[in-house]
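Replying to the earlier thread about multi-chain prediction with a worked example.

Input:
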Amino acid sequence: MRLSKIALRNVRRHPSRALLLVLVIAVTVAVTAALALVNLSAEEDLARQVDEYGANIVVMPRSEELPLSYGGVDLGDLTYDVEPLHMSDLDKIRGIEVAENLNRVAPKLVDVAEIDGARVLAAGVVWEEELALKRWWKIRGEEPSATSDVLLGAEAAESLGLTPGDQVSLKGESFRVAGVLEETGTDEDGLLFLDLGVAQRLWNRGDELSFVEVSAYCSTCPIETINAQIAAEMPYARVSAVLKMAESRELLIGQFRLFSLVLSGLMAAVGVLIVLSTTLGAVRDRRREIGVFRSLGYRRYHILQIVLAENLVLGGAAALLGVGVASAVQGPLAQRLAGVANPLAPPPLVLAVVLATALFVVLLATLYPAWAASRLSPTLALREV
Amino acid sequence: MALLEINGISKVYGGQGPGGVTALHAVDLCIEAGEYVAVMGPSGSGKTTLLSILGAMSTPSVGSLMIDGIDVYSLSQERQADLRREYLGFVFQGLELVPYLTALENVMLPLAILKEKRKQERALEALERVGIDERKARRVPAELSGGEQGRVAIARAIVNDPPIIMADEPVGSLDSATGRQILDLLRELADEGRAVVMVTHNPESTQDVDRIIRIRDGRVEEDAHLLRVEAHPMASLHTR
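Result:
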């Protein structure tokens, strides 16, 4: 016979106490683990959504600027030594080491277009990339897709008197107004968008680009890394991270994570208190029995082992149960509570960490009662002392 | 050298100050191997305190306990536990069998903390020695009679083959016939060369003992060595 047998027999002797402990530990583990798993899925989902929502890196030509002022008259800035970007630069961006973190690469060529004698700022874009990047755009009419389509900002459409379906002429070529953007409150309201290739041809700009907007997944790779790798590939360009977007994402995720941690911490604290008080009660009920063990020559650590073994057996079973329940419910929970479309499969490492943590917490909660039991005197076996 | 020797033992509960209660006053005793000693006295006289000190369970306020020449209370708590396991077997009042373990497992309790392969065999031998067969050994205490439970308690006390047996009112909760069986077993253990110290307040339990120590108010009032006549146990007489 080993000490573990004594522990197991005592567990079987008190089924209601064992059931209570298993229930408390299992519920605590289930809630904490489910929350952690939902949190992981939500983090991943949120990160993807935020990352996909607009550009977080802008690549522009490097240039020198000189403020022009003469005789007290401000004449604006003079930009010189501009080295324009080219279509081949897109391959350089897509060829960086962490290219798998790139979501969209949206090149643009900006120039002035003239429609019926009115001048308007126009941007040549790749429709597929642009529409995927600007997911907040609301278009009246149709989404542009053909090279003969143009898209107008709300102000531009109003000033030109154009509506979806109208035809416009640019440098003698006819284009269909596929759609008009609803007001965005940005510079885009005054813009005319057309196909990039067409714009390069109409304005005789070869394969030139004005700038490139990049949407990258920053949740798996810091934006600074992506930024640095693009800058290394294109030393002649200025690569700027739109940190506000990344910071917003971090803030959102951080708040979610904090909420989960606080809730998990509270659950764990309540679980610890219940395990602690229940075990202390059990030790109190077994004072004479522990006194007998001590009088038979059991050292303090033998008593410690018996009490710890009892709770670790129960804790292990309960933690397994809790992890099982958490794995089963985390998917539906993530979908219903956090609106996650595709919840992650529970990662085995996370489950292993949850199990190990649960056992560690049960161990911590049992240490004091076990220590108190180990300090009991063997004289408790004698009735009159 | 006596197997068990206490010198100038005093025990004060609640501190040495005015609020303290002195349970034992300067007690000296020597107990030899093979002696069957009864410690008697009224309730509160200090006999259980004496047993706890003799049993290496409770540190005296003053004085020393020597077991087989070892100064017990100079040892650490853990070494005292080891010494209890090696030298002492206990039979408790109410027997104190662990209710959720079988008789066999109860007897194996002192062996459970040892790295030994023959635990079960030794426990079965001890049970057989007190007349408990293997079938009954597989039962929990509640399924055994009072006498059988007493035998299991004695088997647990002797399974380590200790030279000293301490018994605290071992027949207090048993009927007279069953109590007689337990007392006979204790006598046998003494005849095998063990020192048996039994605390009791019942004069009938002392019929077979070699020596009676009477305690009153924490002092040894009488220490009587008896002559025992095998054929007629009731013929014991005070001699010293």
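The two ends of chain B are 20 Å apart (CA to CA).

Feel free to reuse this layout for your own posts.
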